[in-house]
Amino acid sequence: MKLDGRSAIVTGGAKGIGLAIVRRLAAEGARVMIADNDEAAGAAAVESLSGTGEVLFTATDVSERLDVHNLVAKTVDAFGSINALVNNAGIVHAADFLDLEEADFDRVLAVNLKSVFLCGQAVARHMVKQIEKGEAPGSIVNMSSINDTFAIANQVPYSVSKGGVSQMTKVMALSLAQYGIRVNAIGPGSIMTDMLASVADNPDVRTRILSRTPLGRLGEPSEIASVAAFLLSADSSYVTGQTIYADGGRLPLNYTVPVKE
């Protein structure tokens, strides 16, 4: 198992892509702490993964510094170390640019971007202490999006936050390279989470999504989890500062593609 003996934190790990990542990391031998603000979903996630590996849950608001420090402390108490971090927590808020409220802009940026700074810094500081004691460097994965490059007119703070995540990834990677800590990001395309499933059942919406996806299908959360496992493992030991786009070929596409009925 590629992550045997390592311990990881996955923010936003109670549902969707985050839960798929938790499941994959646990299957690869990692001990995993789920950090999420949904306590019911967190408890259900731990229950669903019983027998898979050592998976725990800590209720966390990742946009709050004290919550993040509590998360790190609880993870160290439980596992003894932190070797991996996946900054996956994220929210959206739809509003036209002229109608967007400042509070909603701030809220999305706090969860999607500020949390990457708070969690990344707190975990990296602990990793450096571990390295000074002779332990191997760890790895950090940030969840970006193809919307770090594209933009959606009524998703202003989300698009802005994901652009920030990709740039934050580069800055973190350069800053932490001296310690051997690697930092990369994943940029998913259209992934079949509960959120997308709620609209993808509409034939017109599904056709529109697939018309911009050369592989001709929606992605699965497990496929993003596979990329995360790769970036956290020794298989990617010379990869840092990169964003890997798991998007079915959407990002390079200039025109739409035919959709099979």
UniProtKB/TrEMBL annotation:
Origin organism lineage: Bacteria, Pseudomonadati, Pseudomonadota, Alphaproteobacteria, Hyphomicrobiales
Q: Which organism is it from?
A: Hoeflea olei
Q: Which GO annotations describe the biological process of this protein? A: fatty acid biosynthetic process
Record PROSITE patterns: ADH_SHORT
Gene3D superfamilies, from UniProt? Answer: NAD(P)-binding Rossmann-like Domain
The protein's matches in SMART domains, at most eight in alphabetical order, are given as:
PKS_KR
UniProt keyword annotation of Oxidoreductase present: yes
Q: Where is the Ketoreductase domain?
A: 6-189
Q: Identify the SUPFAM superfamilies for this entry.
A: NAD(P)-binding Rossmann-fold domains (SSF51735)
Mind telling me which InterPro entries this protein's record contains?
KR_dom, NAD(P)-bd_dom_sf, Sc_DH/Rdtase_CS, SDR_fam
State the protein's name. Answer: Dehydrogenase
